[in-house]
Amino acid sequence: MTATLPHRAPAAPVSSPQDVRGRLARRFAAQHRRRSFARDLLYVAAWTSIALPIGFWLHDGGWADMTASVSGLMTGLGILCGLIATSAMVIMLWLSARVPFIDLTIGHDKALEIHKSLGQWTFGGLVLHGLYLVTGYALADQVSWLNEFASLWGVGDFVLAVVAIVLLAAVAVSSIAAAKRKLGHEVWQGIHLTTYAAILAAVPHQFSMSGLFSEGPARWYWLALWAATFFVMLAWRVLLPIFASLEHGVRVSRVTWVTPDTVAIEMTGRRIAALGARPGQFMHFRFLQSGLWWHQHPFSLSASPSGDVIRITVRMLGKGTRQLATTLKPGTPVLFEGPYGVFTDAARTAPDVVLVGVGIGVAPTRALLETTEFAPGHGTVILRASSDVEVAHLAEFEAWCRARGARLVTLTGHRGVRTDGTTSWLPAPHAELTLADLAPLADADVYICGPEGATGLVLADAKAAGLPADRIHHEAFDW
Ligand SMILES: Cc1cc2nc3c(=O)[nH]c(=O)nc-3n(C[C@H](O)[C@H](O)[C@H](O)COP(=O)(O)OP(=O)(O)OC[C@H]3O[C@@H](n4cnc5c(N)ncnc54)[C@H](O)[C@@H]3O)c2cc1C
Questions:
Q1: Please, what are the domains in the chain?
Q2: 299 in ligand 1 pocket by Cβ < 6 Å?
Q3: pLDDT of 435-456, one tens digit each?
Q4: Structure pTM?
Q5: For residues 100 and 240, what is the distance between their CA atoms, to the nearest angstrom?
């Protein structure tokens, strides 16, 4: 195993640990207040975007129409479902657009979690929208449901709306966890892209078939909202990543084995500082080498960017990462997206810090250790792996912990079982211990990173120790 030296020498402490803790407590409390305020703003904006279209509909006499007859009730319910589902769809798009303000405020993973949970409601809402409306129209026209459906076939952009529902159904089915696992990430991502086709198919009928959008403020509201959403998606998902990759010209400069199944990949580019990458963040990388270019992976920075060099550390967990580790050559050009995520100082709320890296989760932990502030004696690093040789960058962790006055706890071995029969995230001899036994948590932010199963157990430990949610920061390495 090769151990590289830390990238730069840490500054010597100039104040007493208590002074430093006091300063950090004030700074991170203020940062937390600002972030909470920004988060509240986002929630208000999201709820407003749902309430506003309903307000336009009510203002247009929606309630009176809905309460006038059974067909009116059905039609009204259909309109309500459509308005709510379409608003939710717009929120989903903004959440997946990787807009820096949203990403830094709630975190990229949280944004995707909300995006995912809204998916089912959106799809369900759109199906109900169609069912209720056709029922309402059928009752009003006094014809059967199927006859009404057939008569709508030639009206406006009805066919496109049906196509949109069918495409969204395919996306919904492919996103069920079991199906997603079976399909593999790349195939699932390909199917997921049809969402955009579904949205493009659905939007025209909003304007061509609904009286609500034919004139007045509702029409302008939706036109402006769709235009802004299209712009945001195009800018942050397509144009900015392309421009950034061209501008920085990143290439692989060195590939080094750091454990028997893990490589450190160093990449060099132009004006890397301008990327603004913070230790703990991750980026999506696509290596333009034969056999590798077609798959893109998220990897965390495993060191603070130094000069024009960035480093990631990759463990062979599947076919793609195995191919990457064993075949990647220096000189390979790299396309990237990001940096993303708030597994960084931006999430700090308290003066002390506990960093827990499980398996390859040590990568961002290593980068954070380099720069996150804490007073000497008030930082703890816990590394958890199946065996000693699996701990990537151990020599660097030791050097940084010594230099910064952090306590290093390395725990290796297979997970133990507690006397109450539950599985511990700790190795057998320490199975009865908890996170609170390993590190002082009272004034600490806890950062936990690694594969979902193991980190879930650490998270449970942190919650059981009474830590408020805002002080637990979690980066799961699977989506
Ligand atoms: C935010 C984040 C940061 C990560 N940082 C690191 C890191 O620093 N070092 C490291 O070794 N690993 C990291 N990972 C995990 C790494 O991305 C996966 O191990 C890798 O993509 C697996 O690809 P594969 O083809 O080898 O395996 P597969 O067998 O294809 O997949 C294994 C698992 O990874 C998931 N996965 C595969 N491709 C992607 C993708 N493009 N996006 C999201 N998930 C995917 C799959 O859904 C599956 O759960 C990180 C993951 C995330 C989400």
A1: 24-238 (no CATH), 249-340 (2.40.30.10), 347-476 (3.40.50.80)
A2: yes
A3: 999 999 999 999 999 998 889 9
A4: 0.88
A5: 12
